[in-house]
Amino acid sequence: MPDLYQHSIEVIMAHQAASGGYLASPTFADYRYCWFRDGAYTAYAMDLAGCHESAHRFHDWCARVVNRRQAAVERAIAKAKRGEALSESDYLHTRYTLDGHESDDETWPNFQLDGLGTWLWALVQHAQLAGLEALPLTWREATLLTARYLAALWQHPCFDCWEEFGDRVHPYTLATIYGGLRALTSLGLEGEWRSVPPLIRAHVLERGVHNGWLVKSIGNPAVDASLIGVATPYRLLAIDDPLMQATVTRIETELRREGGGVHRYATDTYYGGGEWVLLTAWLGWYYAEMGEIEKAREMLAWVEAQADAQGNLPEQVPRTLTAPRYLEIWRQQRGEIANPLLWSHAKYIILWHFLHLPGS
Ligand code: BGC
């Protein structure tokens, strides 16, 4: 099998279009798009790997996508301020074709705010890691527009990072917006949106906590593995905050079985609800930040063991399942589990880096 780290970079490079967009997965028909969410984590991984040009081209793609929709975004902001309902044509979608067009495939919902928060955060990481002295003008325009959009809409229910439960507000989504806006603030950019992160934090602490842990969505006390993101990387909570630690313990207890990989949430039915590669790497990233190196290495080893003979990492592994009978149903409807999934490779690269920092 090829060296997984190097191969991961190659997989990502091979599936970045000339436009700069990254394909979520080349083999899975539904994923032949570029998502802000997947792409932003992928760009961050490429920055960590020193491939700044690749990350730069992705951020350029995002800025073009956003700037081209300036009129719709302004409309969304104005409507939100007036308390009016938004229509489908006002939203920034979560994914686009590689040449930056909206998809007409209705399989997945479009109104998801987390990818945009992640994008702002990843763009600022890029600026720092690649040593940019100033943001290109088009990036500045797009990030400020996105910041105003997120600041106007953050309280609206929207689909979560798994593209589900669109009638709810999700602490993970709020954390991405918090992290994205705070990152922009660190670049010294000005705007009314700067007052929003403390409001988001207060809201999560007031409404997003039940029995001493963070919840999947406001009003739903279940746990969801994406909540790792509240601390790693968005720092709405410190990594060692007791609330964060209790949440991670609950993720370990309820969403990870027999030392395997991490499930998304306990009632997941997508492809039977298998063990997700990117979530296992994400948990390892959290442990690496906590200095719990043995645990982080355990996650890295588990992820490495999921690579196929070509070195490709899938989205999920049907080893233990939360809803076994759905595996076949999804396979018949949509084909085999996406493999390779760029976001899985990206999270592997990120974990690898956090384990190879000086002192780890
Ligand atoms: C996942 C999303 C992801 C998309 C593309 C969906 O099934 O739930 O988180 O962005 O696939 O990888």
Give a short summary of the structure:
By secondary structure, the protein is mainly α. Helix content is 50%, strand content 3%. Bound molecules: beta-D-glucopyranose.
Fold and architecture overview:
The chain is mainly alpha-helical and 360 residues long. It has one domain (4-355): Glycosyltransferase (Alpha/alpha barrel). 50% of the residues lie in helices and 3% in strands. The protein is built from 13 helices and 6 strands. It has helices at residues 4-14, 36-48, 52-68, 70-82, 114-129, 137-153, 171-186, 196-207, 242-255, 277-290, 293-305, 325-334, 342-355, and strands at 34-35, 95-96, 209-210, 213-214, 275-276, 316-317. Helix 2 runs antiparallel to helix 3, helix 2 runs parallel beside helix 5 (114-129) and helix 11 runs antiparallel to helix 13. The model has no long low-confidence stretch (mean pLDDT 96). The site of beta-D-glucopyranose has 10 residues, from helix 2.
**Major sheet description:** 2 strands, antiparallel
**Amino- and carboxy-terminal Cα gap:** 26 Å
The tally of beta strands, per DSSP, is 6
Q: Which ligands occur here? A: beta-D-glucopyranose
Helix count equals 13
State the shape. Answer: globular
Q: Please bin the fraction of helical residues.
A: 40-55%
Radius of gyration over alpha carbons? Answer: 19 Å
Helix and strand composition category: mainly alpha
Instruction: Count up the domains.
Output: 1
Do you know the CATH architecture? Alpha/alpha barrel
Poorly predicted runs of 5 or more residues: none
CATH topology: Glycosyltransferase
N to C succession of SSEs: HEHHHEHHHHEEHEHHEHH
Q: Mean pLDDT across all residues, rounded?
A: 96
Oligomer: single chain
What is the beta-strand fraction? under 5%
Q: How would you write the strand order of the largest sheet?
A: 1-2
CATH C-level class: Mainly Alpha
